[in-house]
Amino acid sequence: MLLGDLLGAALGVRSNVGGVGFAMLLLILATNWMRSTGRLPQRTEQGVLFWSAMYIPIVVAMAAQQNVVAALAGGPIAVIAGVAATVVCAALVPVIASIGGADEPLPQAVEA
Question: What residue ranges do the domains of the chain occupy?
Fold first, then answer.
């Protein structure tokens, strides 16, 4: 958080810039170091993988919230552009899904 606040102040923005990103970079560096020295327990690694998977949806949600506020303040053309981009992306989902072709289903999970 401190690095994000300092970067924001250096850029002249009264906001935290990149605090979550800095936290993820530190998490990645610490995880790699612990893994290479053999100090990363399996349960900890699973927790780190969980938070790594959560990072992108959290950042996207935060950015989307800011973009909606800016779009509403920017007037109708920004809202129209946002709706059009959403419709195009939704229309391309089947196209992207068909790129890889059909694969065999994954095997059933084995409970431990």
Answer: 1-40, 56-98
**Measured CA distances, 24 to 53, 69, 109, 112 (Å):** 11, 26, 30, 30
The model's pTM: 0.45
Q: Report the half-sphere exposure of 84 (CA within 13 A, side-chain side).
A: 6
pLDDT at 13: 74
pLDDT value at 59 more than 90 = no
Report residue 67 CA to chain centroid gap. Answer: 15
Contacts of 70 (CB under 8 A, 6+ apart): 78
